[in-house]
Prior knowledge:
By secondary structure, this protein is an all-alpha fold. Helices cover 85% and strands 0% of the residues.
Amino acid sequence: xxxxxxxxxxxxxxxxxxxxxxxxxxxxxxxxxxxxxxxxxxxxxxxxxxxxxxxxxxxxxxxxxxxxxxxxxxxxxxxxxxxxxxxxxxxxxxxxxxxxxxxxxxxxxxxxxxxxxxxxxxxxxxx
Length: 127
């Protein structure tokens, strides 16, 4: 489970970095708090940050469930896909939102796999 926890901590640190990038974008593009709109580039950073939070709500329980009840090494490995997908999503979304698909799919696929694997293991344990 140590590897799973390391991946979770890295995901949270990644989210914190995205938070810093939003703060930096506020200054760069002149969007004073509490505003969340104004400059389109700022809005892209903000949306990446919010979407990452939305995905973390799925990711953290999914990786913990599969890591605990299933295979922690596989869970951590699949979790790495999420960690790789988020910066790919960030870079592509900020450059051109229409090209955010590959980064989003990496993270989303990791979440789906972890959820299904966790459910399969739990149902198997019940049977």
